[in-house]
Amino acid sequence: MQGSLSLGKDVVDSLSFYLDRNVRSGRRSLMPSPIEDPITLLVRSTLLCKDMEFCQDKLQHFVDEYIIVLAKVMSNILNGSQADFTTERYEKQLKYSLEYIKNILEDADGKVEKRKEAYYWIQSLKKINAKFQEMLEVFVPTAEKVADESKEKKELIHKIIIAATFIERKYEIKLCADFEICSKSHECTRALGKILTHFKTLPEDRIRLFIKYFHESLSESSFYNHVSDETAHEFQLILYDMAYTNGTPTKDLMLSVLKTVDVRQEIIDINKGVEVAHDILLAHMILSDMDHLFSERKDPFASFLNHFYDWLASNKKLSKHVGTVMLSISKEIWSHEEDLVLKLINEVRVFLEMTVGPEK
User: Fold this and answer.
1) Which residues form the domain of 73?
2) pLDDT, tens digit (0-9, with 9 covering 90-100), for 33-80
3) Do residue 120 and residue 230 come from a single domain?
4) What distances in angstroms separate CA 43 from CA 48, 62, 137, 231, 246, one per listed residue?
5) Domain match, 201 and 129 both
6) Cα dihedral 346, 351, 352, 356 in deg (nearest 10)
7) Does residue 131 sit within a domain?
8) Residues with Cβ < 8 Å from 337, sequence gap 6 or more?
């Protein structure tokens, strides 16, 4: 499953300029000249980290830079589109967003302790990113009505989500490399990797049976309520074919998913950016969000993995346990703050539209 989307030269140039010159070289300033541009001036004058131990000195510059890059790239994408965009309106919205972002940082500052420093930093990066994704609701008012959108608007939404994802990944890597503040919990990634690794030696019919269990459990959940009817229909057809149609290369498809999980694991292990296609980038961020949402749980998938291993060894029934773990995942996700949940939904929605839409 390979998604494709041209971000456009303007977006690529923006990402290259703001990321290559700052993240890779370690430069602090985003200024192309001694005179600060309005976005940089607005972000820095807000004094986001004032009186907070959480983000002082170099970490304050890190926060400012992350937000400035997000703000400038979002501005360039929106300005080059058919969105309801003016510079004045964007800067007004940015000013409002910065006040909200300051609350995010203040909340983290009040809760953080050394043992959980990485947790609150990763959460802050994700919540800030989610706030910028929310600009879709302001400048692209029909963003939630995916099925009714024009191709141009859908591509605009895709560009914004992908660009935001790309920037978050870069700055999470920078946070770990420069400040040794690194995400330590990857429960979802590891559990999925363990399951898919067994598919290498599992017969095709057993893999089809597993997909059948997954397909049935997903249909009973609220998952399809969060994607367009068109995308839901296409994804259900694919899962049905993988479960029931002999001509579908189910094992090969699942091993391609394993490769994506392996890329995510590689990024975690080496803490360096790996150049990947946009759909792989989104899959990485979806797993990153899931890992974060489950990071407060100890061995959340231990019970299911035990049942899975029993199924591998003795052919015991697994359908009930697949349904149970799917319900558990849903409950855990929706127990978190709404902005983090909506961020995950946005990324899943765009991923599926790119990879399983009728034109793919």
Assistant:
1) 9-179
2) 445 789 999 999 999 999 999 998 999 999 999 999 999 999 998 887
3) no
4) 8, 12, 21, 38, 57
5) no
6) 160
7) yes
8) 127
